[in-house]
Amino acid sequence: MQIRGDTEVVAVLGYPVRHSCSPEMHNAAFEALGLNWCYVALEVAPERIEAAFEGIRALGLKGVNVTIPHKEAALRLVDEAGEEARLAGAANTVLNQGGRLKGFNTDVEGFLLAAKEGGVALAGKRVLVLGAGGAARGIGVSLLRAGAESVVVTSRRRERAAALADTLNALAGRAWAAASALEVREMAEAGPYQVVVNVTPAGMWPNVGEMPPAPWEAVAEGAAVLDTIYNPRQTMLLETAAGKGFRTLTGLGMLLYQGALALEIWTGREAPLEVMRQALDRALDLKKSPA
Ligand code: NAP
Hints:
Elements: E1 8-14, H1 22-33, E2 37-43, H2 49-59, E3 63-66, H3 71-77, E4 80-81, H4 83-88, E5 93-97, E6 100-104, H5 106-117, E7 126-130, H6 134-146, E8 150-155, H7 158-172, E9 177-181, H8 184-189, E10 193-198, E11 219-227, H9 236-243, E12 247-249, H10 252-267, H11 273-288
Parallel strand pairs: 1-2, 1-3, 4-6, 7-8, 7-10, 8-9, 10-11, 11-12
Antiparallel strand pairs: 3-5, 5-6
The structure holds NADP nicotinamide-adenine-dinucleotide phosphate (NAP).
Residues 68, 107, 131-136, 155-157, 160, 182, 199-202, 204, 212, 228-230, 251, 254-255, 258 line the site of NADP nicotinamide-adenine-dinucleotide phosphate.
């Protein structure tokens, strides 16, 4: 691809964001599709996010991805929002239609597509979600969509989990979600679980020797353990779960599918999934070795 006068630009806005693998994934896809587009990572401090959104309009960017810590602000700053973004309370993808910004949340569907590809059934399952932050809310919406029987959300700060359970119950219109401290005994008492999903950053590079507490004795035989972390691909949590005979799934699939859905929103073209998957793999391999 050659940067020219008519090259279209999309970007990921985050803070920090220099570690992102999304540029490699999307630029490989643009090339495969023969699109003269480019994708760059732009570090935007929290207090500059309003200005950055005005910049999307002023500079005529085709769209953006938004990552930590801007996803909630993004929902506030768009002109209209898709249903998943409204339910999740956050937008990770923005489409610029002639200065009018539309927000989407492709994490919600991305998680479901990754679980499906990984052969992890969610319908009718009792699910434990480790974490109660912004991404956990999106996963909660995914689980509700998928027809999970119930969900227990957890946080080191118990009140954070309680607030998320209240939000999810309001969305469900029934007592579907419960809260627990991120503490083995309390989580075990609310079990048993057939699916466990880590949505905390515990175990994410460079802290690869960490993992969140998990109530293994309350995890049912044949259960699946999913991580949303993708760097490293095999977290300590997944290695431990595999050692106990549970089926495991890394967060790489969620990253891939949320990206593929975003690309389809911007370009209207079908995402070249295998090209994007290979580009992600290469980017992650490079990031493992000290540059
Ligand atoms: P967040 O809003 O900061 O929430 C993090 C949650 O984890 C909170 O409940 C927090 O609890 C807890 N937590 C934080 N540090 C912890 C630690 N060291 N040990 C145990 N618990 C800890 O973050 P987020 O936006 O929800 O993102 C969470 C993770 O999701 C990210 O780190 C990322 O790995 C993953 N993610 C992956 C994808 C993907 O495409 N694969 C997409 C989105 C997110 P307290 O505040 O109570 O301490």
